[in-house]
Amino acid sequence: IAEARAAAPPDRDAMALAARKEEMRATGGSAILVNSDAVRRKIERKGILGKSGGINAGKKKGKQQSKNPVKDSPPPQPVVADASAYIAKASARRLWGVGIVTPWLYYMGVGSIFPLHFEDYAFGSANVILARPDSQAWVVWYSIPRADLYLLHVYLRELLGDAYTLDVLEMRKIWLDPVRIEQWNAKRKKTEDKLRVYRHVQKPGDYVVTDYGSVHWGVNLGAGWKAAVNFAYLGWKPAAEEVNEVYRQLERELGQSRHHRCCPKFHELGDRFSEANIVAPDTKER
């Protein structure tokens, strides 16, 4: 019995939940556990992984393919056999912030979009297009400053109606039409604030840096690769505190809770994010 217990695999969901709880403790947010078996079933339904574990493993060969096999073809490349296991393993790492300061590489398709959002924990981000200067892999960005965050939620509540939730920006499912925002602004009284939207055109090799808590979205005009990374320097805390106050007000008005990666609840965390801890964090507690 002892040997069987020693050989038993760890409970991946329990490990993931422990990692989420650590993140919740560090940020004051709410932890959400995603069942890894449910993740795998969803992947299988979409046909990304067959039940045997390979990509499109359940797909049958066509007649032409089976009659005339390609000779001297290279062996198939290894794939991640169990995506849900990989996700659970990554989620169980003690460093819950892994990936935030690690550059991510995105492939841009012609006409593809990136939806309305701001960065996790109201961090900033740096984004660069990795493509030849003559590739025309341009990107059009739209952004709303942090100071207009509350007004943006007012607009989204009117736009979405019953479909609106406080975590709408973290869900990353909306692409806004700047023209409709302009029309909405035009209907507001002269004494009422207007929602400011800025447009930026990024060329290959250009960097776009988003401010702490600024909301952004856009469209990719060409095919290519884009690298992005988050960052937070000492100026992050006062900016994120502004975001926190906006969400405190929204939570009171709506009776909803923010997403756990929205921004830290500074008012509940004492001196955890003091300048001393930001400059020289207490590694023992981590």
Structure, described:
The protein is an alpha+beta fold and 286 residues long. Helix content is 34%, strand content 16%. The chain is built from ten helices and eight strands. It has helices spanning 2-7, 12-27, 36-45, 63-67, 83-91, 149-160, 168-171, 178-187, 236-254, 275-279, and strands spanning 104-108, 113-117, 124-130, 139-144, 198-202, 207-210, 215-220, 224-231. A four-stranded antiparallel sheet has the order 1-8-3-6, with no helix packed on it. The radius of gyration is 23 Å and the shape is globular. The model is unreliable at 48-71 and 77-81 (pLDDT under 50).
Report low-confidence residues grouped into runs of 5 or more: 48-71, 77-81
- Tally of DSSP helical segments: 10
Biggest sheet strand line-up: 1-8-3-6
Mean pLDDT: 78
How are helices and strands ordered from N to C? HHHHHEEEEHHHEEEEHH
Rg, alpha carbons = 23 Å
Q: Find the count of extended strands (DSSP E, 2+ residues).
A: 8
Distance between the termini: 35 Å
